[in-house]
Design a protein that fits this description.
Layout (H helix, E strand, L loop, with lengths): L6 H8 L1 E4 L4 E5 L2 E4 L4 H9 L10 E3 L18 H17 L2 E2 L10 H8 L7 E4 L13 E4 L2 H10 L1 E5 L2 E8 L8 H12 L7 E6 L1 H4 L3 H9 L8 E4 L3 H7 L9 H10 L12 E6 L6 E3 L7 E3 L13 H14 L14 E4 L7 H11 L8 E4 L3 H9 L2 H7 L3 E3 L19 E4 L14 E4 L2 H10 L10
Parallel strand pairs: 3-4, 3-6, 4-5, 6-7, 9-10, 9-12, 10-11, 15-16, 15-18, 16-17, 18-19
Antiparallel strand pairs: 1-2, 2-8, 13-14
Length: about 475
C-alpha cells in the first residue's frame, strides 16, 4: 500500500520533470501570471531571439505601476513606470499571452484576477514575479513567487529549477468570534510563529476554522504565507472551492468539468500524511488584530498595549523593538485604542475582494470618516459588482474615496503614497519601513478594522461599533 502523502507532495511529484544529483528538481509550470513588472523577462527572451514556450499558459495584467485615480497610461508620472505599462501591451500582443488590460473590466491585481477568472485551479503549479503569489494556494494550487531571471526561464521553457521545501501544517480549529476575520487569523499566526517561522516550508492551512472560511478568506490567509517565511501556502480544495470555480471563464467546461472535479477531489492530503512541522491555534483565542511595529510579526489584539522592549527575550530582540517603536513614534504601555491614525487604505491583493468591501461597507454605513480614506477594489469586476450592490455609494457618503483597481498604496511605487510620519491603517500585507512611502508608519488591519479607524480617527475595536 502506498504511503500517505501531503497535498504538497502530490502536486510536487506530479510536476517533476527530472531530479538532479545536487538536490534541484525541474518542475513543470502550469500557469504563469505576469504584470507590468514582467517586462525584463520578455526583454531577455528578445535578446536571445527566443519565443515563449507556452503563451497559452500565460496571463497578464498591469497592476503595480497603474494609477488608482486614472485609467490613462499618459497620466503615469514616472516615465519608466509608464513605459513598463505600455510594454505589457506590446509584449503580450507579440507573444500571444492573454492580457487583461487597462480599460478592460477584467483588469486588476494579478492575485485577484487569477482566481476570479478561473486561471487558478487545484493541483496546478502557478508562478508569478511577485512574492505574494502564495495567494493562489487558497484554491489548492502550489503557487509561489519567482525572480526576474526565473520569469524568463519559465517563459522560455515552461519549467523551473527548484529545491524541494518541507511540509508544514497550521491548524486553526474552533469558531471565530464576532469581528474576527481571515486577516486577523493570519496576523495571529504570524505573531505566533514569527516571520521566519515557516522558512523552507510549504504551509498547508487546516482545521475547522480554515474550512469555514470563504474562498476570499482563504486567499487572504494564503496571501500572507510569505510574511511567515513560507515558500507557499495552501488550503485543500473542497466543495467551497468547486462551487467558487464553477462557471468561471477559464475553468474547465462541459465534460471536462466533471473530469477536473474528480481530479480535484484527489488533491487533499491523505489521512495519516506526515508533516515536517505542526502548529495549532484555537480560533476562539483570536481577536481583531493590529500591527504595532515594522514587521508583520509585531501584531497584537486591539485590546492590548504597545509592548515594552525590556520584556523581550534577548538583547537583539530588545534593540529591534526599540528601533521599531522609534520609527513608529509609539510609547510602550500606550493602549492601541488610544493611538491616532492619519489615513486609511483599503485594498491590495490581501483584502480587496468583494467580501472585503462588503465587510468594510457594513461598518462604514451611516458613519463618517474623519481622516482621508481610500477604497481600491482588486479588479474591475470587483469594482463593478460593488457598484451594483451600492457599496460605492456607502463609501462615498461616508467620506471615502472610491478609486480604480490596482496595487495602489500597498507598494508605494505608483504615486499612491503617504507622507513622512503619517500613520496609516492599511489592509495590505507589509508594514516594513518605507513600504508606503518614506517615513510612513504602516499598521496592518482587516477591512472592518480599517473602517473603524477611519470613523474614529484612531485605532478602534470594531466589535464596539456594532
Amino acid at each position: 500500500m502506498a504511503a500517505a502523502r501531503t497535498m504538497f507532495e502530490k502536486i510536487w511529484q506530479r510536476h517533476v520533470v527530472v531530479d538532479r544529483d545536487d538536490g534541484y528538481t525541474l518542475l513543470y509550470i502550469d500557469r504563469h501570471l505576469m504584470h507590468d513588472g514582467s517586462a525584463a523577462g520578455f526583454a531577455k527572451l528578445r535578446e536571445r531571439n527566443m519565443k515563449l514556450r507556452r503563451p497559452d499558459r500565460g496571463f497578464a495584467t498591469p497592476d503595480h505601476y497603474v494609477r488608482s485615480d486614472s485609467r490613462a497610461i499618459a497620466d503615469i508620472a514616472d516615465p519608466h513606470h509608464r513605459k513598463l505599462v505600455e510594454q505589457i501591451r506590446t509584449n503580450t500582443a507579440e507573444s500571444g499571452v492573454t492580457l487583461f488590460d487597462l480599460g478592460d473590466e477584467r483588469q486588476g491585481i494579478a492575485h485577484v484576477v487569477g482566481p476570479e477568472q478561473g486561471v487558478t485551479q487545484p493541483g496546478l503549479t502557478l508562478v508569478c514575479g511577485d512574492s505574494h503569489t502564495s495567494t493562489h494556494g487558497a484554491l489548492g494550487a502550489l503557487a509561489f513567487g519567482i525572480g526576474s531571471s526565473e520569469v524568463a526561464h519559465v517563459m522560455a521553457t515552461q519549467c523551473l529549477w527548484q529545491r524541494k521545501p518541507k511540509a508544514m501544517r497550521i491548524s486553526v480549529d474552533g469558531t471565530l468570534g464576532d469581528g474576527v476575520t481571515a486577516k486577523d487569523v493570519i496576523l495571529a499566526i504570524i505573531a505566533r510563529i514569527g516571520t521566519a517561522g515557516a522558512v523552507g516550508h510549504v504551509i498547508e492551512y487546516a482545521g475547522s476554522a480554515i474550512r469555514g472560511l470563504s474562498i476570499e478568506g482563504r486567499l487572504t490567509v494564503c496571501n500572507m504565507s510569505i510574511e511567515a517565511g513560507g515558500r507557499a501556502g495552501m488550503v485543500a480544495p473542497d466543495d467551497t472551492t468547486i462551487a467558487y470555480l464553477k462557471g468561471r471563464p477559464f475553468s474547465p467546461k462541459e465534460s471536462e468539468w466533471d473530469k477536473a472535479v474528480a481530479f480535484w477531489r484527489t488533491v487533499p492530503s491523505d489521512e495519516g500524511a506526515i508533516f515536517d512541522r505542526e502548529v495549532s491555534l484555537d480560533a476562539a483565542s483570536i481577536t481583531p488584530m493590529v500591527t504595532w511595529g515594522t514587521s508583520p510579526e509585531d501584531a497584537l489584539s486591539i485590546t492590548g498595549r504597545i509592548p515594552e522592549p525590556s520584556t523581550a527575550p534577548d538583547t537583539a530582540k530588545k534593540e529591534s523593538m526599540k528601533r521599531a517603536l522609534d520609527y513608529m513614534g509609539l510609547v510602550p504601555g500606550t493602549p492601541l485604542e488610544q493611538v491616532p491614525v492619519d489615513r486609511v487604505f483599503i485594498g491590495s491583493c490581501t483584502n480587496s475582494r468583494i467580501e472585503d468591501l462588503r465587510a468594510a461597507a457594513k461598518v462604514a454605513k451611516g458613519r463618517k470618516a474623519v481622516i482621508p480614506s481610500w477604497v481600491v477594489a482588486g479588479s474591475g469586476l470587483v469594482k463593478k459588482q460593488a457598484e451594483a450592490e451600492g457599496l460605492d455609494r456607502i463609501f462615498v457618503e461616508a467620506g471615502f474615496e472610491w478609486r480604480e483597481p490596482g496595487c495602489s498604496m500597498c507598494v508605494g511605487m505608483n504615486g499612491d503614497t503617504g507622507k513622512p510620519q503619517q500613520r496609516i491603517a492599511s489592509t495590505s500585507n507589509r508594514n516594513f519601513i518605507g513600504r508606503q512611502g518614506p517615513g510612513v508608519r504602516t499598521h496592518l488591519v482587516s477591512p472592518a478594522m480599517a473602517v473603524a479607524a477611519a470613523v474614529s480617527g484612531r485605532f478602534a475595536d470594531v466589535r464596539k461599533l456594532a
